[in-house]
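INFO  loader      accepted 1 record
INFO  loader      residues=139
INFO  predictor   begin
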Amino acid sequence: MSETFETIRYTADVVVTTTDRYVLLIERGWDPFKGQWALPGGHVDPGETSRAAAARELGEEAGVYAAPEELEQIGTFDRPGRDPRGRYVTVAYHLTVIPGTIVEAGDDATNAQWWPLSDLPPLAFDHADILSAAVESTS
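INFO  predictor   done
INFO  writer      dumping tokens
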């Protein structure tokens, strides 16, 4: 029996919402989906948990700092084809913050801003599905 292995990359994403129903999105500075809106997130570094990676990426990409234990896990998203670069498995987290929390784009984000949950732009990857799962789990 022949076995084939695929390279699987491990990432973490964060849904940050305010108590008045806004969500934090970043504008991607790199392909894939350069110039499109997405959730903050990125690769899990060696020796790092996905929760720690989510907190780190949130700070690096949007200037929002949270302790890893403040992030609540939403779920794992691993549908084949969810990322055009290959097989990516992400663990998504949720954080609720107060309205008016300051955001500042950094790292590979060219913009970071609050969007009303009722009026979102098209999102990169499967981030609309992740966002829906987060909103359902908190309503």
